[in-house]
Amino acid sequence: MLMKTPPVIEVQDLAIPLPGGGDRGFAVDHVSFSVAAGEIVCVVGESGSGKSVTAQSIMGLLPKVFPKPAGRILFEGRDITSATPAELRDLRGRGIGMIFQEPMTALNPVQAVGKQIDEVLRTHLKLSRKARFDRVIAAMQEVRLPDPERMYHAFPHQLSGGQRQRVLIAAALILGPKLLIADEPTTALDVTTQAQILKQIRDLQRERGMGVLFITHDIGVVREIADRVVVMKAGKVVEHGPVGRVLDAPASDYTRMLIAAVPTLEPKRKDHVVTGDVAIKVDGLAKTYHSGGLFRDRRTVHALQGANLVVRRGETLGIIGESGSGKSTLARCITQLIEPSSGNVTLAAGKDGRAFRQRLQMVFQDPYRSLNPRRTVGQSIIEGPMNFGQGKAEAMGRAKELMQLVGLEPQAIDRFPHQFSGGQRQRISIARALAMEPDILVADEAVSALDVSVQAQVLRLIDDIQKRFDLAILFITHDLRVAAQICDRLIVMHRGMVVEEGTVASVFAAPAHPYTRELLASIPGRAEETIPA
Amino acid sequence: MNSLASPSAAPAAARRRLPAFLANPSVLVGGLLVLTLVLMALAAPLLGTVDPSRIEPGMRLKPPSGLAWFGTDLFGRDVYSRAVYGARSSILIGLCVAATSLSIGVAIGLVTGYFRWVDAIVMRVMDGLMAIPTFLLAIALVSLTRASIATVIVALTIPEIPRVVRLVRSVVLTVREEPFVEAAISVGTSTPKILLRHILPSTYAPLMVLGTYICASAILIEAGLSFLGTGLPPEIPSWGNMISEGRTFFQVAPRLVFLPSLFLALTVLGINLLGDGLRDTLDPRIAKRM
Amino acid sequence: MLSFVAKRLLGLVPVILVVSIVVFLLLRLSPGDPAVVIAGDNADAATIERIRSSLGLDQPLVTQFFIWAGSLLQGDLGISIFSNIPVSDLILQRLEPTASLALTTLVFAIVIAVPLGTIAGATAGSWLDRALMFVSVLGFSVPVFVLGYCLIYVFSLQLRVLPVQGFASIRDGIGPFFSSIALPTVTLGLAYLVLIARITRASVLEMMGEDFIRTARAKGVKERLVVTRHALRNAAIPILTVIGIGVALLISGVVVIETVFNIPGVGRLVVDAILKRDYPVIQGVILMFSGVYVVVNLAIDIGYAFLDPRVRY
Fold first, then answer.
1. What is the ipTM for the molecules in this complex?
2. Does B269 contact C18 at a Cβ distance shorter than 8 Å?
3. pLDDT band, very low/low/confident/very high, at A527 (cuts 50, 70, 90)
4. Single pTM value for the model
5. Residue C86 gets which letter from DSSP?
6. Lowest mean pLDDT among A89-98, A277-286, C158-167
7. What does the DSSP assignment read for C43-70?
8. Which of A366, C5, C25, C218 has its CA 20 to 30 A from that of B130?
């Protein structure tokens, strides 16, 4: 018989009180789990579930506001809660590596990236400069950073988000730690990059047989990467077990709800027939930025090149793309928030010569910043109608009706934005747009900042008002699952160009452009679903 | 139907700020100090003072006594009375300089921040003005004319304007990128309304803080000018003048320098404490803009 | 990099232009006849006429500016009305005490302020931090001349360890130089010191909350190195900026402090010139100090590029 080796990390009855003292409860409420060598354990939960706090406390990196945790944390069977600061420091980087959510800010902006990987070696080993350099280059090669010897001297701002995350992975793994803690490492990345990074982590984990503790909010990501799952809610472990059992036969209602809230890839509007007139027509819209000048080479950026599209009343056109694809530039050109370099936006001949700003309205991405924090929501809703001559009393009356329509209490009209939740604010933004009685609604990532359950409600509301007011909707999103819920047709954008166009079902079933295929293949958790043709 | 959540605990509500900033010890101590000095300036005749300008040749350089609590100066004037009355000119100058430079600076800053073509020109002028040391510019401006409270105020206001413009401009540049400004544009709100309704209110908090700093700095510079004999005319009782006159006799009668110095330092300390406290309670990020 | 420097240099042109226009207008736009203003209250008609023609006041304003600016470009700052000596010579004669004082103050303030502010920022809330914050408000509130007299009172009149006033050149020996310049340096440097220390504290404190600090800790880096290598290094730009802006504070202070300690420097020169209404001297000194301010801040601007790769193009 072999002696049973202890798990790489074992958390026993970990309890961390909420900061601020008092008896308000626990950020982490008596949590126990373990990670064995060679397995990936996902801790999944919504914001405020305590999953990140748990991860930070393992590293001894809990922010100072938190009181000292109770319970035990065993690293290879050794209790590290009572370790001295020096022992903990030695463990970090050598025994446990960690990567974080924001690769943009997790690297020191004024230090070359190679030096930042090298810092781990300098801290823990006594090696010659040459030996360290060689090891850094090897580590950079292992995470497939291109041209490592040149990139060694590059600064973080010169790298893409994915490359930065690879640098962080290289630094975390260069000393071959037994455990990697990954705190939402792909959340800030585009979906295609996310797929690459997930694969990278999986591959390295298998090669080295290390344990990985992977924190995420995304059920799709869990499906992609986990061996075992721990579901957390409000500081407590709700459920844990092998990935197949937890996701396919969840024991708790909460887990079932989490799984059900993830939109499916099945096109909801497969059978929706659009019969409305053309509401908006966009021809050859382009936007070019010039930079540089007297002392620099002129650089020209084609943010948007020759986009054409048509949307009918009652129809939703999805504009799909990752960051930098030009989808937001397109939206801002159409809404005349920026001036296009060339091309036209034509609205259908409307009734009684109403102004452009009345006929086309917008819902913005960030519900926390798109309402003026110093004005009541009523003042925000009536601002537009009053700009076009409506009387205050009349506008207020209408605003109350609209509040009711979007599912908010009319009396709440005198409150300030901070008194509402994110989803409620997005409803207010929709009411503000509807107050103008528009023909066309442009929604720029309108549900991206919302939790999945709230997302579903707002999507239903948009669907509802579209039918009621016969709106033409341009729905800009990076999320194909969301697009499947609400769009009739899609255009896919890549590097400023429209690369694909068609109904949702046809784009999903038979993508023509290689980029669309990559995009579809990158959707996390997709393998488990079948897309009906 | 989705019911309304109860108001959240977000600390942003304007009306809930008031008690918060009164609870700040800096605001409290600074505010009380400033309030006391303002009351002292207003009630100067009631505080056991005599005419601060009355010259008594028989009373020159007398040590403190029941008649003159802090003694008399070279001309036999009562030092205590002069110090109490000196608060009037200092506080008046501080407040006027802050008020004028803020109002002029806000007007220029709003327009400058919003319209790019104005920005290029105005900011170059402001950079130029900032390059001239405040104190020297003020000293030179005062020396051009017969010094009086009015000319001192003008001379101290001009060098402060660029600071206000820069602050307002930096706020405008940030706020105009906020989605709520884009939202206002997309419902057809005109540019002047956007500036006044959506952008101007964001400048109030930082301007309040900057205003206190300008007030403190104006009082210090005025004292410096008078100290060098280039500020207010000697017949106006001011702390700077008193220190200037007293320094000749510093080795014999240091009190001639120390009493007005104490008043001066306490006033500026009070205003600075108030400013720091306001900055910390209103928005700690303000510090980065100044 | 070269283009970056060239661009910054080019950016100076409008600043210098504005400075010279303002300085030029200072005299020309004063109410009444500048010649009368310069001549003072008891001058006779001949003196006024002499001043008028020597300054070219009979020409149109724009012509006057170009004549004035033209001679300025050749290094000619004009001639003192009072002593008939070229202004540039007057400034040069008085430069040494002022430059010595400025340098000692700069070193004194930076050497103390940066470590102090860094420690305070890294240990925000500690007693050292609180003490620094308290002293810094005091430092801003006490006028330099008041502080000067307090120090003279304690160290010169009561303890009698340092001379009351005066200046000894470094050529007279290190001992006399430092004992004469110690009090002026501390007096002038205190406000500058607390200004730098406060910004250092605030910037380091802000950086300590950044994600890359957490990354460094996760690598097992020692806390001392986390603070210096990562936090302070990233805080360098605001610190450098305030050192540059603070030069204005230093210049204002020098003018006053030279009177307090009776130091025969450029500050004394300009105060005497103002009292005598010697306008060419006033203009010359203002131009010189503005020039110093502009050059220091240009150097700092270029320094950014070395400190922060994101500034480089």
1. 0.84
2. no
3. low
4. 0.84
5. B
6. C158-167
7. --HHHHHHHHHHTTTTS-HHHHHHHHHH
8. C5
